[in-house]
Design brief:
Length: 407
Amino acid sequence: MKPLISKPSALKQFYDLWSAAWSFTDVFETYKMSQVVNPSLLNHLNSSPVRAMAWHKYKSVFSVALPNNLIYFYDLKTENWADLALSHEFQQNIRCMEWKPNSGTILAVGCRYGVCIWTISTSVSTSLRQGRSVKVPESFVSSFQDAWCQYLSHPGHFPVTSLAWSPDGLQLATGSLLDDAILIWDIGLGYANPIRRAGNITCLSWSPNGFYLFAGSTQSCFRVWETKTWTCEKWNLGSTYCQTGCWSDNGGYLLVAMAGEPEFHSFQFARIPPQIGGVHLRTDNVRTSLSSHLAEAARTVGGGIWSMSWDPKGERLAITFKEEEEGSQYIALYQTSLLPTLSVSLRGYIKGPANSEYPSLISFKPNYPRGALLSTCWRNGKISFYPLYFSSQISSKMFSNWESAEF
């Protein structure tokens, strides 16, 4: 498939040299990253059939990035794939992506040497610009017509392995496993402000209220930056790097897991920037061992946490485990409550379709009206959807029908 935009002539010579040295760079980059993180993390990044997945902020649409460096779009409501696929010569080794808030057609993609900011043109927007009457298409993805790419790069900041939009969509934070700075991008100007002393970044997450930016690092610690004057607080947790973290829907609580640890740490943030004042909660209710036993399967589930996802309503928490752990083909599902304080209780486990191996990526759909919708990418290439129907703050909550979409 041809790229959707032509190759910039000013970058042609650089691109030709880059392509010639591709295999050497790939090996050297992997070696350097293996010096700062567990090789199992690199194996996961390089071998997963779905490299990244991102839900649209407002539509029942998600994007997926495959090993061929193409990005595809699927409309869950109409069960249709878009005819449009995103491709660009600089869109290589995709690691992460996220839709821009307050904009239905802009997607940020973290790649080997920078970030691709895609702006998608739809038939509706084209008609409005030309002053014609608008016919709303049945499927949102069927309205996709064309796309333009703005390429952002910064010396020494590669590969881009994590990114996060601010809730207002005005700023984009990017991080790399091989760079000790976080970049805060002004997309309109194409300019980045570096935040130093951040450590090599393993994960980034902006709090939903926009007050804080969470940054996990390879230095057995993580930092939380307040976004008014960009000061930070640092926490050291054990001797391994920070694996993952997620915010509650109100931005008042943060859950953090360190690599190889069978527990997560919870923090409360009750102040307003420029103050941070994070409090590490240590009660048994929130700092819980995840090693449990399934009587019906006679199998231990738990161990080192791989990823966590907290639903936008703040009532369901999904956790996956390292592939080396026994029972890691299960997803642990927790019920959470923020009132009067944070509480977490195990509800059960999810196992994927037959021969689905291990969960690779998990995320909750934004704005799901009847509870929560968990999406899971499995190591065999399947994507499954698990609707969790419940009434807010009611204890009698249950699973419903399972749906699957397969490549």
